[in-house]
Predict the 3D structure of the following.
Amino acid sequence: MAGDLPGPDFWALIRPHTGEVTDVRPTEYRSDLTAAVECETGRFFVKAMRNRPGGRRDQMLRERSINPFVRPIAPALLWAAEDEDWIVLGFEFVRARKAEFHPDSPDLPAVVALLNRIGEMALPEVAHDWRESRWDRFADEGAPSLFRGDALLHADINPSNLLVGSHGMWAVDWAWPTRGAAFIDPAMLVVQLISAGHSAESAEAWTAGCKAWANADPKAIDAFAVATVRMWREVADRWPDGSWTRVIVSAAEAWAAHRGVVVA
């Protein structure tokens, strides 16, 4: 095991669920630890965060709470562990790769189908108070009301969170599910598709296969496009060395231009 992995106390915390750990293969997800773990009781995908107050702990708690309601399309949460230092989730391990979003990708029909499955899921009671508000401060005056709704949103649509397996697709990393307008997940897909090489017209053509998009108010989509540009510009200003942020900013700007909206 790599030397930068957590120390013995961490492995002691999860040992009741894993038994003896024989192999740990870290992955790319944005957590203090995400890894495929081989152990005495099988194989798990383990996600762990330092147990500190704030957004990242809240994300772990939300992901733990929502999992029973999204299991048809998300790997099952099989166990959880927590102490003063760590909060840990142990998921069913699935053999899969991240989806490919480029224009010629054979994954695109399945991506659209998966977003439709997410859009068809009922909002569970646990998510009733998780109102989507992250785009509010970037929106024009009065526009945030257009982002309200009663749909269960994944709200982090990107290729790494949509996994392709031999028997279908999975939506993973339900770290910040929210309640909002159903078009928001498909709108996030549009920006991701443009960043992968699609024209804005092509990206919207693919997203048109999402029922939530087809039923959305165009004014709400326009308002969301404006807020998306402003949000990603702020992210890029905060992390100016991240080339991926510049790509996303350019994609968001291209989308806004395609829709004919002006972003101040």
Observations:
- The helical segments are 8-18, 55-70, 108-120, 184-195, 200-207, 211-214, 218-238, 243-259.
